[in-house]
Structures are given as C-alpha cells and as structure tokens.
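To fix ideas, we now present one chain and its tokenised fold:
***
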Amino acid sequence: MKGGNVQRARGKHFSFTLLAVVCMTVFLWSYERRPVYTNIISSQDHLILPSDVFDVASHTSGDLNKPEDQPVQEPLRVNVETEETTETTEQHISNIGNKEETTETTEQHISNIGNKEETEDKINHQIPVVEDTEPVTEESSVITEDVRVSLSLSGKNSSSDNKVCNYAKGRWAVNKKRPLYSGFKCKQWLSDMWACRLTQRPDFGYESYKWQPANCDMPDFERSAFLKRMQDKTIAFVGDSLGRQQFQSLMCMVTGGEEIPEVQDVGRKYGLSTPQGGARPNGWAFRFPETNTTILYYWSSCLCDLVPLNSNDPASEVAMHLDRPTYFLKQYLHQFDVLILNTGHHWNRGKVNANRWVMYVDGKPNQNRRLAMIGNAKNLTIHSVAKWVDSQLPSHPRLKAFFRTISPRHFFNGEWNTGGSCENTTPMARGSEVNQEESSDQVIASAVKGTRVNLLDVTALSQLRDEGHISRYSLRPSSGVQDCLHWCLPGIPDTWNEILAAQL
C-alpha cells in the first residue's frame, strides 16, 4: 500500500514538472513573437547616453546657476524598444552635432558657458609692452598697422563672448544678389575716390561675394526692413577713414545707391562742420524722415580726446589724452541708439609727429617711457574707451555699442611709399574660409571682454580679400603709390554692415 502511494506521488510530481516545461515553452514562443515583457522594463534598464551628452543637455535647459546640492535633472535616455520611435545613441549624438542652424555643438556650448562665466571677471588693464617699430606714413591715411602688435596682449577672447553665433567664422561664396547697390549711382553718399566703378579699374569680381557665417543665420540685407527696425533711432560711427567707409557703405545700402532728396542733412544738430582750413567736414549726419532714422559719422582717428594746448595758435601742440574718450562721445552719447567705434591705422610715429600730438595721462604730460611707445599708447586708449563706454551703458539702456576690429592692410613687397602694391584681381586667392574661433585683433577683443560692448569682428574675413582694395585705380594716381588700405565700394565694408545688422 505504501509503495502505491509513493508511485502516485511521483506521478503527480512528474505531471507538474511536465506542465511547467510546456508553459515555459509556450511563454518563450509567445515572447519571440511579441516581446511584451519589454514594456514593463524599468527605466533604470534603458540605455543611458554618455555623461558628456547629458552635461550639455542639462546645461541647455538654461539653469546654469543651479546649486550642486539641488536634484540633478534626470539624464536623457533612449528607449530601445522600437527603431521607428527612438534614436540610437550614435544617431542622437550625431544629431546634436549636425543641427547647426538651431543647436550648438558640445564643444561650442561648453566654451560659451566658460566664456559667460569669464565675463563676470574684471578686466586687468595692464599696458602690454610692444616694440615701437611702426613706420612713418602719409596724410592720405594709407598708413601702417601691424596686427601682430596685438599678440603682445595676454589672454584670449572669442569673437562672441556673450553670443552663441560667431559671425567672424565662415566662408566667402558667390552670391547672385551682389552688389547691394550701384557703384555708379551712389554719388550722393559715396566719395568718388572710393567708387571704383568711376575709375579705370577693369575688373569687378570682388563685388560678387557674400560672407556666410559657419553656424549663423545671416539673412540678406533688406533696406526697408532695416530702416523700420531702426525707426526713431540714431546710428553713430566714430573712428578713422575706415569708419567713414563703413558709414558711406551703410548710406548706400539703405538707399539702394539711389539719390533720395527727402533725406535731411542734420549735421548741425551734432556740431558737425568743416574746420577752418579743413578739406572736409569733421563728420556727416543724415536723417530719413519716413522712419526718423539718423545715420552719422564723426572723425576721430584715435578715439582719445585731442585738446590744443593753445587754442589761439593754429600751429599749437595738441594734448593727446590717452585715457579720455573723444569729447564728441561725452557730448552726444545720450542721443545714440547704436554706436560703432574703430581705430588703429593712425597709431604710428609719423601721424603723432605730423599732428603735433603730445601724449597726456591723468591730465598731465606722459612721463612713462614704456607708454610713450606707440603700440602701448594705442592699447591703453582702446581699453580706456571700451571701459568708459561700458560704464555709460547703465545710464543709456537703449544703447548698443560695438567696437569694430581693425581692417587689414595688404601691402606686398614694400610699404605705401616704398613700392608696396596689391595688384591681385583674383578673388579668394588667399583662401575663402575662416575657421579660427578667436579674433585676429586681440587688442580690441581683450578690451571689450567682460564688458557690455560688443565685438564687431571683421579682421580675419577681410584679410582674405586683398583684391578688393583701391590699389592703383585711384582718381588721382601717384606714380609708385598704391592704396592697399581702403576698399572699393561696393565692397568689403558692405559685409561689415551686414554683420552689424545681424548682431543688432
């Protein structure tokens, strides 16, 4: 009887085992046909992106100041359930890098975060030491500037500290909509000496190129739209002859190169007049009545305050206050909505001597031998002006200030007075692309770093365009003298204004 019970128990155990095997087989067969199990997998078992991608994702949420003890945002996860609804890790990382028009790259974003933190630091306005080797130049402003002097400054600066977009990085490309205005018709605003269409120059291929920033959307310049954006505003250019070229370029751009009689000359409102014995006014100002937009230019080649030591003597020496901005800025800054500063090419020993400039600091003649060197004096003024403008911005909240980097010279095989020339007429002979992140003009870049003054970086992109200068095609050419400093218009300064409009 006992033996029968044991056999029956063993039979039941075998039946339960067989039933379990059959159920498991059916379950596994069903799983392969339809993996419902994956629907109940916990989020901890899903695939997690690498930590560097998570870091960018968390920063782009905008909470850059989150304390470390606060909960961290949950990492971005990728569900591997279906191919149709979820990216793979590699695809997601690739997409982060490829969406250039809407998303910054990992490296750019991390760099920008670092730059934003650096802008909170104060500028160390120490005067860098450079060699005083700049040659004497002529009154025509075809003069020298060695951008390498700027490399003496310590520290580095991106051309766009507070912006994701670096407009100085990109390439030149042929554009059918160029030029933006006629070099024949813009006589009301454009000086004849810069209108190369009125000279004997036979080629105009340089007019056909547009600058395309690498990671920025820079739309075509549309004059009526620009004037509407600038309604009831005043745009002021203050600087040397390259600033005057940019001013004339913008006047031609917003008028389409056409004469517009209704545009009003309002120079008197800003004290602009022709000095006694001067060849031209110290500036111009024009108002567009339809939008009440004023565009003006004031001549200030060094941006510092120049005060004759004897106002009754035309031959008097002039105090060159290196640490003070030009009086024009102090007098009229409150009337400006957009300010564009530039300087550089008049900082040479020839100009200082010819203009009888005597360097002053703290209201007294300069006694610092190191500061007497032209490069150091220029750097001090640039930093002083940038710092002063920045100090004024809280009192003028509507004002947007820009400091344009230096416009490069292209004298080959000599200087302007030693046979230097720029006779290349082939566009892009020096290349068409700028890949560097930092500005080529580190003096101005470092001066605006940490301030609310914007950098208008045009040096590297202009360096590629040596075929766009006046060259030997001037209205009154001098034998053996070429202008490899100023630009033909229409031309490169039009691009400076397009970038300005985009940054606005």
Observations:
- The longest helix spans residues 2-33.
- The two ends are 102 Å apart (CA to CA).
